Amino acid sequence: SLMLAKAKEEWDQEIVDKQAEKERYLSERITPLHTSGLSLSQLQDLCRELHEKVEIVDEERYDIEAKCNHNTREIKDLKIKVLDLRGKFKRPPLRRVRVSADAMLRALLGSKHKVSMDLRANLKSVKKEDTEKERPVEVGDWRKNVEAMSGMEGRKKMFDAAKSPTGQ
């Protein structure tokens, strides 16, 4: 609310300043007319002078208005051209490009990048043979195992199997 009050004061002050500037300018440019004590021919001459001045000012106003209209038309035409150009060219869809780490560092750091980064060099090597020997896989018929464990006998076998390692 304080900002609004301050803005209102400034706006009112600006209006008063503009009015004062207008009055000052008009007082400089326009001299007061003294028509008292002039003859008819002098009054006619004064009217002709004033009429000529009004015509000159009117011509200037017309010229300025014509220039302003021409500029606004030109601006509208240029805006239409800009909109037309935007519509004609479509942005191509960006493609994914695979870039190696070296190329990326070269692009980011420029010529400073000399060390090659081999990301796979730091990985632990694992032999396939070792992993296969560690886990011997018994291939059997899974249906036999299910049949053996089904029913009460299967549960008794599981119970006995669980007891036997701890009992020994």
From TrEMBL:
One of its GO terms (cellular component) is troponin complex. Transmembrane segments: none annotated. Residues 8-60 form a coiled coil. Gene3D superfamilies: 1.20.5.350, 6.10.250.180. GO terms for molecular function: actin binding. It holds the Pfam family Troponin. One of its GO terms (biological process) is cardiac muscle contraction. Keywords: Acetylation, Actin-binding, Coiled coil, Muscle protein. InterPro entries: Troponin, Troponin_I, Troponin_sf. Binds to actin and tropomyosin. Troponin I is the inhibitory subunit of troponin, the thin filament regulatory complex which confers calcium-sensitivity to striated muscle actomyosin ATPase activity. Belongs to the troponin I family. This is Troponin I, fast skeletal muscle. The gene is Tnni1.
